[in-house]
Amino acid sequence: MAYLNHSLPDWSCYIRNEFLYNHKSGHGEVTKADVHSVASMEKRVPLFEAFLETGVNWTRRPLHAFCWKPDAVIEPLETIMYWDCFSPYVDVQRRQRLAGLQAELIRPDNTKVLGEYMFTLDWSWENKGVPDLNYSETPEHKCAHLFKVETGNYYAYPNNRIIWFDNAWTFNRITKNPGYEIDTTVYSVENKRRIETSDHYMYEVTQLDDTNYYDDMSEGRSKEAIDWYNGTHPLQREVENPIDTYHSQEGRYADPQ
């Protein structure tokens, strides 16, 4: 995962000239620009690097410095983007399933604007020797989907402020939150059981005590997990001893390879 800077699927647009003159002049004027990179720093919004038609390469400009309509009215940064960067470790993807789709973006004032998906910024924490003090790997994590918006500007919004269009799929689009909640469960299997294995290739599992760790639903264990542990899941079946299966070809499934 890239640290601090990452190349982008570059796009041509305009940069507002006041962002080239420290906001002292250039208001109402624009310069053609190719945006090609992003910088990610905690407690800052994503900052973009652009190669201008003047021959200048300008770094770390905020998203509202750019527009795709030269006469677009500038919108506040806190309107076009919800969150700062979650980490200096940033990833850039064009999500193939979302490529080319339009969506309604729900602004902080709950009005909606139409945009076309471009690509996604996402964050994690790669340096395990340094504590992660932000939210890049918690259930509160957010990504930022970049959109080309009908106002002539660009937005970067998280999933929970977007309602997508797909002519062949979204037949039951919502118009408001039907009650969805953030899932705060941390999903992991290695801290849910106390077992011991062996050096056999098809090892047997030995329970280290008699506790049924799947009895307590309050610990985030699903009904399916509890049924599986208790041997009542409909997909379970009696299987031959795995050690015997390893040592004998009799009764084995055909090798799929």
For the sheet with most strands, the description reads:
7 strands, antiparallel
Please state the overall shape, judged from the principal axes of the Cα atoms: elongated
* Domain module tally: 2
User: What is the H/E order?
Assistant: EEEEEEHEEEEEEEEHH
Radius of gyration: 26 Å
Mean pLDDT across all residues, rounded?
85
Number of strands: 14
Helix content: under 10%
**pLDDT under 50 segments (min length 5)?**
242-248
Provide a count of the helices: 3
Provide the structure class: mainly beta
What is the CA–CA distance across the termini? Answer: 34 Å
Search tags:
single chain; mainly beta; 257 residues; 14 strands
Task: Explain how this protein is built.
The protein has 257 residues and is mainly β. The protein has 2 domains: 163 residues, no CATH class; 53 residues, no CATH class. It is built from 3 helices and 14 strands. The strands form 3 sheets. Strands 1, 7, 8, 9, 10, 11 and 12 form a 7-stranded antiparallel β-sheet that branches. The protein has a 5-stranded antiparallel β-sheet with strand order 5-4-3-2-6, with no helix packed on it. About 3% of the residues have low confidence.
How would the blueprint of this fold be written?
Elements: E1 2-3, E2 5-16, E3 30-39, E4 47-52, E5 57-61, E6 66-67, H1 77-80, E7 89-93, E8 102-106, E9 112-124, E10 144-149, E11 154-157, E12 162-164, E13 195-196, E14 206-207, H2 223-230, H3 242-247
Antiparallel strand pairs: 1-7, 2-3, 2-6, 3-4, 4-5, 7-9, 8-9, 8-12, 9-10, 10-11, 13-14
What would you say about this model in short?
By secondary structure, the protein is mostly beta strands.
